[in-house]
Amino acid sequence: MLAQDSILRLDAQAIDYIIIALYFAFVLGIGYLAKRAVxxxxxxxxxxxxxxxWVTGLxxxxxxxxxxEIMGMSANGAExxxxxxxxxxxxxxxxxLFLGVVMMPFYYGSKVRSVPEFMLRRFxxxxxxxxxxxxxxxxxxxxxxxxxxxxxIVNVLLGWPIxxxxxxxxxxxxxxxxLGGLSAAIYNExxxxxxIVAALLPLTLVGLxxxxxxxxxxxxxxxxxxxxxxxxxxxxxxxxxxxxSFLSVIGIVFGLGFVLSFGYWTTNFVEVQxxxxxxxxxxxxxxxxxxxxxxxxIPFIVIIPGMIAAVVVPELTQFKExxxxxxxxxxxxxxxxxxxxxxxxxxxxxxxxxxxxxxxxAANLSSFNTVMTYDLIERYGLKGRDDDFYLKTGRWxxxxxxxxxxxxxxIASGYSNLMDYLQQLFSFFNAPLFATFILGxxxxxxxxxxxxxxxxxxxxxxxxxxxxxxxxxxxxxxxGASFVGAGVAFVVDILVSVVVSLVxxxxxxxxxxxxxxxxxxxxxxxxxxxxxxxxxxxxxxxxAGIALALTVALNxxxx
Length: 559
What we know:
Blueprint: H1 14-35, H2 41-46, H3 53-63, H4 68-80, H5 86-89, H6 93-109, H7 115-123, H8 125-158, H9 162-211, H10 213-222, H11 237-240, H12 245-267, H13 269-276, H14 281-297, H15 299-312, H16 314-322, H17 332-340, H18 345-381, H19 387-412, H20 418-442, H21 448-470, H22 480-502, H23 522-525, H24 540-558
Helix pairs in contact: 1-9, 1-18, 3-9, 3-13, 3-14, 4-15, 6-12, 6-14, 6-24, 7-8, 8-9, 8-18, 8-19, 8-20, 8-21, 9-10, 9-15, 9-18, 9-19, 12-20, 12-22, 13-14, 13-18, 14-24, 15-16, 15-17, 18-19, 20-21, 20-22, 21-22
Pfam families: SSF
Protein name: SSS family solute:Na+ symporter
Keywords: Membrane, Transmembrane, Transmembrane helix
């Protein structure tokens, strides 16, 4: 549903507008200050590899705290309930820890400037080109999601038409990314993280008070459509689309927890770019691990409000029961804010939503401009120019990407639950890429030819599953089609890559040092302790162990 419907109009007053205006002033100010530190393309695209771990760690998680996390997960909470927790405790944290412990040494140690550039060194130009183009396309589509929801909030607040809101929202994000590059994005993401938490935590607490505390929420959800199944994370049949509990668990663990999750967190340059901006190897490894700690608790301020909205907001309750009405699941947070928050707190909540969408879109644009400039324009187009040319090119690419994202926002507007759309995109782009990456990193026999053929075949398989699902050949409601598509794409990519590798010529071992696990000396995979990095709380493997233990405990308590 488009949010210009009067039913969603928020009663914002002067105090709310003042809070929002102050936030925008800070955002643009950070962009201006960051511009002063940009003197070359490395500063613009990778912050000069100079940032501390706590900054990149918070930026790492904030970059993902966009439309996908806020509106998409609250929509999932309203529709499916607690099985949505799987996106965090199964579908995020384990992969983030794996990235920090196992994969960041290869990314950071090889000094590549992007994930596609790693593909270039491991598999050569064809695989690099496929990866760079598919990544750039994915970022424009996902930026459209963030932009559409950002425009929706502006529309709800001011009553402007969606198209006007879309353009205004795009210009604001474009301004600070074009000025300060990745540093502006990262420091704004740190600010946005705290603004988002400050906005959503009070909404959650007020919502719980409204329903009579946790037990009141349990009672109301039990009596609603979907019933008590929404109060247990496992087996999550409504979410997975499987009617068999065993198949549902397999689908969630393998499709979401392994293929989609590891594909997203370990190969998605949007996230990896934040770690690459770290000041040393230790900081780079700790970046996703530090991000894992807030990540595991975000469900309580994102999913729970969605569940509350589904049982206390009349319009959403009607939609859930009958599928009709003037709202849909994507409106859950807006409706809850409309009904529960007083002025002042409403302004803070609106600011938090604006911050989340800006963080998501800025992350998409800052990674898009890097891949377009370094991996496509410099590599295959305008070669051998001076550094200042590529710096200027990066800024113009950001402008072009924003214009295209305005167009892709229209695609996002057609989905009643945006997580369905996002998971579909991830099954197309991330699942086969992860298969190629993981096989190539741990099997030295995998050949360059297998790299690009496996990638193309895996992507084509995921698209085929989507087409079959859309035409009713495969009947999997919820996000089951995405899980199946991702799993099948992963398996097909692996099988095709193995077969092709056995009949084509691999690279020499000397060419694979630093790119393949077994051929890379241990000292090259672990950092030499830097000054100030000796404390136990700075040891990546120990931090990862603590995070994993907490995640297992949360799965047990809420399972």
